Automatic annotation (TrEMBL):
<dbReference type="InterPro" id="IPR013149">
    <property type="entry name" value="ADH-like_C"/>
</dbReference>
<keyword id="KW-0560">Oxidoreductase</keyword>
<dbReference type="GO" id="GO:0016491">
    <property type="term" value="F:oxidoreductase activity"/>
</dbReference>
<dbReference type="InterPro" id="IPR020843">
    <property type="entry name" value="ER"/>
</dbReference>
<dbReference type="Pfam" id="PF08240">
    <property type="entry name" value="ADH_N"/>
</dbReference>
<dbReference type="InterPro" id="IPR013154">
    <property type="entry name" value="ADH-like_N"/>
</dbReference>
<feature type="domain" description="Enoyl reductase (ER)">
    <location>
        <begin position="15"/>
        <end position="336"/>
    </location>
</feature>
<dbReference type="Pfam" id="PF00107">
    <property type="entry name" value="ADH_zinc_N"/>
</dbReference>
<dbReference type="InterPro" id="IPR052711">
    <property type="entry name" value="Zinc_ADH-like"/>
</dbReference>
<protein>
    <submittedName>
        <fullName>NAD(P)-dependent alcohol dehydrogenase</fullName>
        <ecNumber>1.1.1.-</ecNumber>
    </submittedName>
</protein>
<dbReference type="InterPro" id="IPR011032">
    <property type="entry name" value="GroES-like_sf"/>
</dbReference>
<dbReference type="InterPro" id="IPR036291">
    <property type="entry name" value="NAD(P)-bd_dom_sf"/>
</dbReference>
Length: 339
């Protein structure tokens, strides 16, 4: 095959344009692998890229940071990987281990470099992460951003312990992964959702307490009541301006809030007294490194854990997938099969 099918995104303020294109199949250089992509998944970040709200972007890019498939070819000097091996790509291909640095986050898949929504993708060999055998390609495609972000938030930043209380917001990819990981670790999970249907699904997945934030706009009071006035140990904060102050009011003295998103745009700033008065550990993170990806995959295999997929779209229906992500009409992850 000399040409491949790919989705091209032209980012633009107010909404970019998506189109199906034919591109030459790339050839792996030294230290690179060529991956035959089988599935890719969407994140809120992909909307920011489409809307040209994610830093300096090229005029045209293959979108989506998250995808999985099998190795089609190895470049010179690659060892430890073999053709046919199933892998997922790392969100930040240059962040191998250790704390995040400016250099490590210079390049990110599906933003300032081509991403995974094409039949073939090039990756540095160290950024092609072998995936657990029990996962399908669609399931493996959900891991690089949402899965690893939830893992990093709970276990590397918050150092979650069995028996602790975790507050989660909504039923998007990160929150659902965090629910699964927190339950795996023996923590008690309180989760907010405005949908009765989604609350029922979250309960089946093991959430201990569900709060309808629409019926209870002062939901921090419910959280405090559920924790006997103490507050939760950890908040995985995906809302941003619309939820951060209530998250501050929900966390215990000395507790941890891991800020990873801002899907709830409407809201005011947080009063410094809340941060200072409670000695809150407020930490922002961005996904995780390749070493943490390997750690997460070992845990997934050990516990036979499977990601929650809400919808699967064909590649030709990419615009419908983006529209569903934009209106937050999904549960868990939105996946696109790459045919």
């Amino acid at each position: 095959m000399t040409n491949m099918k790919a989705v091209e995104l032209r980012p633009a303020h107010g909404g970019g344009t998506l189109s199906i294109a034919s591109r030459p199949v790339p050839k792996p250089g030294r230290g690179e692998v060529l991956v035959r992509v089988r599935a890719a998944s969407l994140n809120f970040r992909d909307l920011l890229v489409a809307d040209h709200m994610y830093g300096a972007l090229p005029e045209t890019v293959v979108p989506l940071s998250d995808g999985a498939g099998e190795i089609a070819a190895l470049g010179e000097g690659v060892s430890g990987l073999v053709p046919g091996q199933r892998v997922a790509g790392a969100f930040y291909p240059d962040w191998i281990t250790g704390p995040i640095t400016a250099a490590a986050r210079t390049r990110s898949m599906g933003a300032n470099m081509d991403g995974m929504l094409a039949q073939f993708a090039l990756l540095p060999a160290h950024a092609a992460i072998p995936v657990p055998d029990h996962l399908s390609d669609e399931e493996a495609a959900t891991l690089p951003c949402a899965g690893l972000t939830a893992w990093n938030a709970l276990f590397n930043v918050a150092a979650l312990q069995p028996g602790q209380d975790v507050l989660l917001i909504g039923s998007g990819g990160v929150s659902v992964f965090a629910l699964q990981f927190a339950r795996m670790a023996g923590a008690r999970v309180i989760i907010l959702s405005g949908s009765a249907e989604k609350r029922a699904r979250l309960a089946k997945m093991g959430a201990h307490h569900l709060i309808d934030y629409k019926a209870s706009p002062d939901w921090h009071k419910d959280v405090m009541q559920l924790t006997d006035g103490r507050g939760v140990d950890v908040v995985v904060e995906v809302g941003g301006p619309g939820t951060l102050e209530k998250s501050m009011q929900s966390v215990r003295v000395g507790g941890t809030i891991v800020a990873i998103g801002f899907v709830a745009q409407e809201g005011e700033g947080v009063a410094p007294r809340l941060v200072i008065g409670k000695s809150v550990n407020l930490q922002g993170i961005t996904v995780g490194n390749c070493a943490q990806f390997h750690e997460m995959n070992r845990a997934l295999s050990l516990h036979d854990l499977k990601p929650a997929i809400g919808h699967v779209f064909a590649m030709d229906n990419v615009e419908d997938a983006y529209a569903l992500q934009r209106r937050a009409g999904h549960f868990g992850k939105i996946v696109i099969k790459v045919d």
